Amino acid sequence: MDITVTTIPYEDRSILSNLIQLYRYDSSEFDDHVVNRHGLYPYKYLDHQWTDDYRRPFIVKVDGEIAGFVLLILDVPNEFTKLSSAEKTIVISDFFMMRKYRRKGIGKQVAFLLFQQFAGSFWEVKQTISNKPAYEFWNRIIREYTGSNYTEVVIQNESWNGPIFVFQS
Length: 169
Fold this sequence. Notes:
seven-stranded mixed beta sheet; 7 strands
């Protein structure tokens, strides 16, 4: 199985837009997203993936077929809430694998590839409090990757409601 994780060029914006619809639909049971009057899930940060220097959109392919996407925030700006005191902190803003590719170890390989690509960085991975499957996935992946050398903090305020894992790659 050939797994690739590459940056999405702006010319492929529509691919990310389409995948975000699947992602938002999938996660709507946990985060209460609703469709707009056009039957679409709005995502206000779509164009920001290419206009904000600190954002990076990645597409995941398995044997050449689109399997998902990852949206990263690199060098988290000061206006973002972050727990890490490190100067360079990366946040996994969104991580989506299509159902066909779940429970096959692909998500783990994608996460490990990104951790290795940005080796030495501090990471923060957040999940909403109600998304138990995401929590279990990230808890298992980060525990394995770090050898249990990570911090978990639960935030419950107006800016976030859920667990956040903090670790260094």
